[in-house]
Amino acid sequence: MKEDFLHYIWQHQYFDKADLRTVEGKPVQVLRVGVYNTDAGPDFKEALLKVGEVEWSGSVEIHLRASDWRRHQHQLDFKYNQVLLHVVWEADAQVYRTDGSLIPTVELKNRVNPALLHTYEQLRRAPFAIPCAGFWPLVPDITKTMMLGRALTERLEQKGGEVLQVYRQLGTDWEATAYQLLCRGFGFKINQEPFERLARALPVQVVRKHQTNQFQLEALLFGQAGFLAEPVDDYSTSLAREHAYLSKKYQLQEQAMQRHHWNFLRMRPANFPTVRLAQLAALLVSQRSLFSTIMHTKDAKAYEAVWQAPVSAYWQKHYTFGAESKAVQVQLGKSSAQNLTVNVAVPLLAAYARHTQELTYLDKAVELLEKLKEASNRVTRQYEELGWKAASAADNQAALGLYQRYCQPVNCLRCAIGNKIMKQNTPTA
Ligand code: SF4
């Protein structure tokens, strides 16, 4: 058993409260269980209890064994002086506050329905990627829908929070934030790290100065990415010359990357980083204010058109420098464009909603996800095997959120589906 089970038992009061007494023999009445505390300090704050004849308001601390109090050194910690009640599975010691006063203790070992503990252990020890797989068909659809909705909201909150961190690191500049996210997005899975590095090697302030000139932007992007060190044809020679001039002008030489930072292995030519850089240059030229575009583009289809800006003439015949091809597929594909909507536009909208408290941006993010179809992935397939089906990118994102935050760390007691399972399998819970 882990302490989270006792937290759950206390929070829902799933124990026999008849003639509840401290181990010292005083009667205890729980008038308010308190608020679960995820920060430092006691586990539940603002509880209201009647111990003996006196009503107290304060905290509750929970441990598997009473002796854990000393093991965690709470007897020396002033934060634990407001603890009114020590709730333990096994009362194997008496515990004291820093001033030496005794803390009343309640033992739960003989007050919890064994069926509840059994179900918890079944979830905790399940040999499945989704620990509740064996119970899944018995859980009502409405519970699953509700939990997935919660997981999606939490995921958007988390994504928005991550973007806000970038926004602060970049000196509260939304345009710079959008540029950084877009670069990372263009790396997709395989080249995400080098694209992030490129965003640092080529600051948005420099990009802004050359946003009307696709040739100069290509020179800056390919040059800073390290693809112009050894030009192989007329076009790359011209770009290299332009890059030499611009990188000197903006003192960018030291940040320049090298070709070996980029991954070409096991990749279709249409996904080569050289093609992605040409597509990124085209997009940056077509959108003077990237952030404003992302905030105000109308719908999923319009976002697709934004990402799919036409590449320059050279890249309509090349996947990489020096090798001309006849049938080149250079346009950003539909699924890649949708990927950018999910991983660039949606987090940025969620961040801006959080920053401005304007919920319309969050609604827009959710609407976009609901309109998009997204291919299943390793995680969502695990739920599909249980009979669940994603109808949109919103469902996929919800499943990813559920998996990462709840199923993978076996956080079933904080999950509505897990709660339903616990209740359904414990007649008196
Ligand atoms: S966290 Fe919820 S959905 Fe995931 S395995 Fe546990 S009970 Fe099931």
Q: TL;DR of this structure?
A:
The chain is an alpha/beta fold.
| Helix/strand order, N-terminal first | HEEEEHEEHHHHHHHHHHEEHHHHH
**Can you tell me the residue ranges where pLDDT is under 50 for at least 5 consecutive residues?**
none
Helix and strand composition category: alpha/beta
Distance between the termini: 18 Å
The set of bound ligands, ions and cofactors reads: iron/sulfur cluster
Strand count, sense and barrel status of the largest sheet are: 6 strands, mixed
Helix content: 40-55%
What value does the average pLDDT take? 94
Strand content: 5-15%
Treating each run of at least 4 consecutive H or I residues as one helix, how many helices?
17
Radius of gyration, taken over Cα atoms and rounded to an integer in Å: 29 Å
User: How many β-strands, per DSSP?
Assistant: 8
So what's the overall shape?
Answer: elongated
How are the SSEs placed, and which strands pair?
Elements: H1 3-12, E1 28-32, E2 35-36, E3 44-51, E4 54-65, H2 68-71, E5 83-90, E6 105-107, H3 114-124, H4 141-169, H5 174-186, H6 192-201, H7 204-209, H8 214-225, H9 234-249, H10 273-286, H11 290-296, H12 300-307, E7 318-320, E8 323-324, H13 334-356, H14 359-371, H15 378-384, H16 393-407, H17 416-424
Parallel strand pairs: 4-5, 5-6
Antiparallel strand pairs: 1-3, 2-3, 3-4, 7-8
Iron/sulfur cluster binds at residues 123, 130-132, 402, 406-407, 411-412, 415, 417-418, 421.
Q: What does this protein look like?
A:
The structure is a single chain. By secondary structure, the chain is α/β, with parallel strands linked by helices. Among the domains are: 3-111, no CATH class; 170-332, no CATH class. It is built from 17 helices and eight strands. The strands form two sheets. Strands 1, 2, 3, 4, 5 and 6 form a six-stranded mixed β-sheet that branches. Strand 4 (54-65), helix 2 (68-71) and strand 5 (83-90) form a beta-alpha-beta unit. Helix 3 crosses helix 17 and helix 5 (174-186) runs antiparallel to helix 6. The chain starts with a helix and ends in a 5-residue tail after the last helix. The mean pLDDT is 94. The structure holds iron/sulfur cluster. Iron/sulfur cluster binds at residues 123, 130-132, 402, 406-407, 411-412, 415, 417-418, 421. Residues 123, 130-132, 402, 406-407, 411-412, 415, 417-418, 421 line the site of iron/sulfur cluster (SF4).
